[in-house]
Design goal:
39% of the residues lie in helices and 21% in strands. With 257 residues, it is of the alpha/beta class. Strands 1, 2, 3, 4, 5, 6, 7, 8 and 9 form a 9-stranded mixed β-sheet that branches. The radius of gyration is 18 Å and the shape is globular.
Length: 257
C-alpha cells in the first residue's frame, strides 16, 4: 500500500477577515487525509486573529505578527512546512472539494512532473461565480514568452523543487509565483490537468489583481531580462500591448463583480 504524501498548504493573511473563514473552511473541508495547514498572518486588526484561533486546533502552525508582505509570509510558512507537496491559497480565495486529492493523485501517477495545476473560477466578493480562468498547458519556453496560463490558486508542486530553487524572491510584489514557475519549469515539466476546476479566485475591490495589476508585467519583464532575454522578444511585445488593453480587461472584470 502506497503511503499518501503529506501536503503542506500555506495561507498568507492580512486584514481579510470577511473572506478568511471561507478560505480556512475550504482547506479543512478537503477529503484528503494528509494535510498540514499553516496560516501566516501579518498582524491583522480586523478580526482575522479570532478566526484563526477558532480553528487553531486543526492547524499545524500559525502566527500573527508584522511581516514584509505576502511573499515574506509564504516563505515563512514554507520554512515550517514538512510536506512532500506544497501549495498556497490566499486568504480571499478558496479550494473546491476534492482538489487536493485530485492533485496528489496526478503527481503520484506522473512522477516526472514538478507541478500540476487546473482551471479556476472567478468569484465575486459574495462568492458567486462570475467567470472562468481557463488555464492552458505551458512550459519553460512559453513562460519565457509570457504565456503563463496558470491560476496560482490551483497549483501543487513537489517540495524537492522548492528546496532546490526556493524561496520566493521577496523583491517581487506580484510576479513571485511566475518567477518560481519559470525556475521550476527549467528543471522539470509542469502539467495542466484539463477538465478540473480546483479553486476559486476572488475578484474584489481590495484584491491585488484589481489594485496593483500594473505591477505584474513589469516584474515579469524583470525576470525576462534577468534570465538573459533581450528587448526584441515576444514577452516584451506583449508587455507593451498589454499596457494598451490592460485597463479595458480590468474594467470588464470589475463590471461583472
Amino acid at each position: 500500500m502506497t503511503t499518501l504524501p503529506l501536503v503542506s498548504i500555506i495561507t498568507p493573511s492580512f486584514n481579510q477577515a470577511q473572506f478568511l473563514e471561507k478560505t480556512i473552511q475550504s482547506v479543512l473541508g478537503q477529503d484528503y487525509p494528509q494535510i498540514e495547514y499553516i496560516i501566516v498572518d501579518g498582524g491583522s486588526t480586523d478580526g482575522s486573529l479570532e478566526l484563526i484561533k477558532k480553528h487553531q486546533g486543526r492547524l499545524a502552525w500559525w502566527v500573527s505578527e508584522q511581516d514584509q508582505g505576502q511573499t515574506d509570509a509564504i516563505n515563512k510558512g514554507f520554512n515550517r512546512a514538512k510536506g512532500e507537496v506544497l501549495a498556497w491559497i490566499n486568504s480571499d480565495d478558496t479550494y473546491n472539494p476534492g482538489a487536493v486529492g485530485e492533485a496528489v493523485k496526478y503527481l503520484l501517477e506522473n512522477p516526472g512532473f514538478a507541478m500540476v495545476y487546473a482551471d479556476c473560477n472567478f468569484i465575486n466578493a459574495e462568492g458567486q461565480v462570475i467567470g472562468r480562468f481557463n488555464a492552458a498547458q505551458t512550459d519553460y519556453r512559453r513562460l519565457r514568452q509570457g504565456y503563463v496560463h496558470i491560476p496560482q490558486q490551483t497549483m501543487f508542486f513537489r517540495a524537492k523543487y522548492w528546496q532546490k530553487l526556493g524561496p520566493l524572491d521577496p523583491s517581487f510584489y506580484f510576479a513571485m509565483d511566475y518567477d518560481l514557475w519559470t525556475r521550476m519549469a527549467a528543471h522539470a515539466p509542469i502539467k495542466y490537468v484539463a477538465g478540473k476546476v480546483w479553486a476559486n479566485f476572488r475578484i474584489h475591490d481590495l484584491g491585488k489583481t484589481t489594485s496593483a495589476d500594473d505591477r505584474c508585467w513589469p516584474e515579469m519583464i524583470r525576470v525576462h531580462y534577468r534570465d538573459g532575454g533581450g528587448f526584441f522578444s515576444l514577452i516584451v511585445a506583449k508587455y507593451y500591448l498589454r499596457k494598451i488593453i490592460g485597463p479595458l480587461w480590468t474594467w470588464r472584470i470589475n463590471s461583472n463583480s
